[in-house]
Amino acid sequence: YADGVNVVISSVRRSGRHADIKTGSLIHQVLALREAKSKVAFEAILLTADNQLSDGITSNIYLVQNGTITTPPLDAGIVDGITRGVVLDLARKMGIRVVEGFSHVTQTKRADEMFLTSTGREVVPITRVDGKPVGNGRPGPITTRLLEAYRAAVPSLLEEG
Hints:
Elements: E1 5-13, H1 27-38, E2 43-47, E3 53-56, E4 60-65, E5 68-71, H2 82-93, E6 97-100, E7 113-118, E8 122-129, E9 132-133, H3 141-160
Parallel strand pairs: 1-2, 1-8, 5-6
Antiparallel strand pairs: 2-3, 4-5, 4-7, 7-8, 8-9
């Protein structure tokens, strides 16, 4: 993902307060995945009913604006991912301000950087949303630093685990 990825804002909405509960019904994820594939996107980003960023089909999402990382709070119904926790801890240790709060979908147009995290994919720079560039259209410095820090931290985390 050296050049970053394109994501789409899905028309599928997050199912509500208890979206973090893993159930046998994955209909929202299946529909969003179909939408992403039809638009040749790496991931679909789900929104809440009031157009706040929620998460990806299989990932957590982050915006970087003016040196601050914003990611949806856990009470948005997102899954409390292991990689999410590690990345947020690393960011704070690196002196990067982290806000766990809501961002309206329109904030994607103003973001300097965006990225996703998931255990299988680590830290993935988002360089396009719906085909439009994020920031300068290249992976940003905070995203790049976090990816490097994450990769450096994983071996010791595995030893501790």
